[in-house]
Every structure is written in structure tokens, then in C-alpha cells.
Amino acid sequence: MAVDLHSHSHFSxxxxxxxxxxxxxxxxxLTALALTDHDNLDGxxxxxxxxxxxxxxxxxxxxxxCDWDQGGFHMLVYFLHPEREGPLQDRLESxxxxxxNRNVEIVSALNGLGIEITMNxxxxxxxxxxxxxxxxxxxxxxxxxxxxxxxxxxxxLGKDKPAYVERKRLKPxxxxxxxxxxxxxxxxxxxxxxGLAASDVRPTLIxxxxxxxxxxxxxxxxxxxxxxxxxxxxxGDVGLVATGGSDYHGTYKRGLALGRGFGDLTVPxxxxxxLQERIR
Length: 280
Ligand code: AMP
Ligand code: ZN
Ligand code: FE
Ligand code: FE
Known about the structure:
The protein has helices at residues 18-27, 44-51, 87-112, 119-126, 133-142, 149-157, 172-181, 198-211, 225-237, 270-278, and strands at 3-4, 32-38, 57-66, 73-78, 185-188, 215-220, 241-245.
């Protein structure tokens, strides 16, 4: 028995449809799947329809990029529902507008470097809503500018690289407060990207727990079994739910499977119930 609490569909920068992801999750026997597209809930209705009468629980979620100086802080938000009203749902529109402006600025920055790609090509690559850097990266691959998506980030699109553009983000504390006020529960995604010194990890988690943080993503594709165990221990110590997921993106993250990550991932079922218990 296992779950996957971190996945992306083509409503953001995954390549598969919500229906395809749900069907794959049901086929592999997962008991719950969270669809966590970046900044939007647009794929949830389709995912729920596909999960109906499958016996598998579909958790509506998002992944928010937060304002954080030391590194990349991504907040997973669970049980945030598109059909319920809440202050976080209300903010999603402006977050997406800022994402869209930023995509245009990234393309101009690339043009300024003599790389002639267009926003049109990026939109065609993305095929809909939730356009992000992986789509721009794929256009660079298609144009023969780079050989892979990771190379596009290394040379152009990553933080501090020549075509990097900031966008408006919520502070982690604000994301947590808005999520709680919207009847949802949060978990810090892939905590290693926060860029914290080892001695700062525990105090940071305690501080955010006091604001209402719910969980820590301990069972992540890129962690080895030892890291998963020690993070789950830490989560327990500071009173957070040990959550986990693959961060499946289809062809935008090669070699990474739904549910299983790089082959050795198993996210325990109990995370779902423990998250649900946190909802006030
Ligand atoms: P965006 O939402 O436009 O900021 O893009 C974020 C996405 O880019 C996430 O899905 C990441 O997985 C992906 N990403 C960020 N940094 C890298 C990197 N260095 N190599 C490959 N993918 C990355
Ligand atoms: Zn993504
Ligand atoms: Fe992330
Ligand atoms: Fe993700």
C-alpha cells in the first residue's frame, strides 16, 4: 500500500493529463494521489472525474514557490479545493499573472542573448495553462541550443543564470496562513532545496510549525533510504507529518516514475490520514 502526494500534469509543467496520471496511479495500486500543479487547481476537476469509482482517493493540491532568500522554497498545499472559497484560492489568479509576465521576460532575456525563440513556441510546447521554465527549457532543446532540460537550467534559466527572472511569491508564513484560512494543510516540498545550514533546519521547522505548517516531504524521489528515515524522524520530533511524493513531471523529468520515483520510493499511507487530522 502506498500513496503519491506530489505530481504535476499538463496543467502546469508535467506532460501527462490528469486522467492519464490518475489511471496510472490506480493501475499501480496507490490508495491516494495528490495532483499538485504549480500555482493552479485547473486539473483537479478532470482528476476527480477520472478517480471517481476507482476506490483511490484524489487529493486536490498545489505547489507554491515561496519568497525565500537562501534557496528554493516550495510549499505543497493539500485539500485546497477549487470549488470552495478561500483567501488562497483568491490569490492564485495574481500568482499566475505574475508567472505569465515572467515567462515573457525570460523569453526577452533569451532574445537579448541572441537566442531567437518566441513566446508562441513556448505556448505551443506547453499546450495550455500553467506555463513555466521547463517549457522554455524544452523549446531550447527543440531549437538545438542545449541538449537537455537540466542543461537549459544550468546555462540560462536557473537562479543567477543569465535569463533568470524573479517573480512575485508568497512568503512561507503567508502561504501557510492563507492555506489554513482556506481549510487546507501545507507541507514543505523537497526540503533540501531550502539551502539551510544543518543547524538552522530544526529551528526553521519549529518556527513555521508555530505558524501552522503541517508537514515535511521526507519520502522524496531524490533522497536515499537513510535520508528518508532521518527526515521522518526529524518531522516526528518537531510535530510535523512526514509526507512524500515522486514529483512526477512525465517527460519534463526523465527517468522518474509516478509513485516509485527512481524505483525505490514508497510513501506510507498514514501520511494522508495524519494530514487530514491537521485540518481545522
Ligand atoms: P517555474 O515554475 O517556472 O519556476 O519552474 C519550476 C520548475 O522548473 C520545477 O518543476 C522544477 O522541477 C524545474 N527546475 C527548476 N530548477 C531546475 C534545474 N536546475 N534543472 C531542471 N529542472 C529544474
Ligand atoms: Zn514543476
Ligand atoms: Fe518543487
Ligand atoms: Fe513539484
